[in-house]
Amino acid sequence: MLKLSFTNVTRHKVRAILSIFGIMLGVASLIALVSVVDGIRFQIEDAFSKAQGARVAPIKATDPIFSQLDGKWVSKVAKVQGVKVAIPVIIQAAKNIDGKDLSPFNAVRVLGIDLSAQSKATGSGFTGELLEGRDFKASDRGVVLIGKKIKEDYDKFLGTNIRIDGEQFKVVGIYTTGSDLLDNSIEMSIEDERDTFSFPQGKISYINVQFTNPGQVQSVVDRINAIYGEEIKATSLSDFSSQFGELFDSITALVVVIASIASLVAAVGIINTMLMNVLERFREIGALKAVGWTNGNVVAMILYESLFVGVFGGISGVVLGVLTTGFMQGFGLTTVVSPSLIVGSFLGAVAVGIAGGIYPAFMASKMDPVDALRAE
């Protein structure tokens, strides 16, 4: 029966290829899109997992770019037991870089850090690894550290100038966090940030907190929230990893829904192909039933045919999807193709193939052999 089903699929090669092509595109797009989302997730989670400390922000803050915190909280947080240093930070989105206007899709975040406070810390938790140049000095003004992606996108090097919203700064260091998203940022002194973006005096965006004992991060975070939890909220940097994970779970679900629409279209194509095959084989199916084939045999034959389409579409889709992710890596995108993604995509293609054959199989099994043999 398997051999017969395979032969039936190859009778109309163009029709079969188009059905396989539909499944292939759905599987390949699912693998490519999910791999990109997982790649970004991996970069960000890895970057934050290496960071130590916590962030203190307004209780109802969403994006720190749009939040303002009274500067008085810096001294209050610094006095909490277990806190080593509280570092005020202002974060804003640049409107233009070197005279080039930026859209929300290529936004560059600029962080203004209190360099005097940071000099007392072992690290801000955000700069990551310094690739070139030097770190900030407490007295620095008019200089910036840029992320690796800024260097690449704007062709910057140590000692070159970069103009941010009309103000010119000198590049003294280049860093990487391991994430293109986080590397698309610039750091400067908090005084330069306040002047460049006309940020209100006495206000900051949030506070970076470092602890006396890194092993007691959560207990000190809980202590800050217990004392001041009605007005501010402290969150450990490692917790941001899980928060991003929840966000990317939602994005992945959206990607799966989009890919499922493509799979639905492919299933409709398979139904059409199988129905055409059944209508063109009335006499053949009637003859098979006349010589003793049961309804179950006919159903199995048609389902095997649609299964073959699903399997071929799944295999070709997986191959195309993996090749596409490799192609995207050549353009600097980080992609993660997990075994579960490949297996799940392939099984989804097989399921689509079988689902597309159920109705045609049911129609074929209900044929009356005498009527089928009389059909022209």
UniProtKB/TrEMBL annotation:
Predominant location: membrane
Keyword Cell membrane: yes
One Pfam family it belongs to: MacB_PCD
Localization annotation: Cell membrane
Record has Secreted as a keyword: no
InterPro entries per record: ABC3_permease_C, MacB_PCD, Macrolide_Exporter_MacB
Family the entry assigns: Belongs to the ABC-4 integral membrane protein family.
Name this protein carries in UniProt: ABC transporter permease
Organism: Candidatus Iainarchaeum sp
Taxonomy of the source species: Archaea, Candidatus Iainarchaeota, Candidatus Iainarchaeia, Candidatus Iainarchaeales, Candidatus Iainarchaeaceae
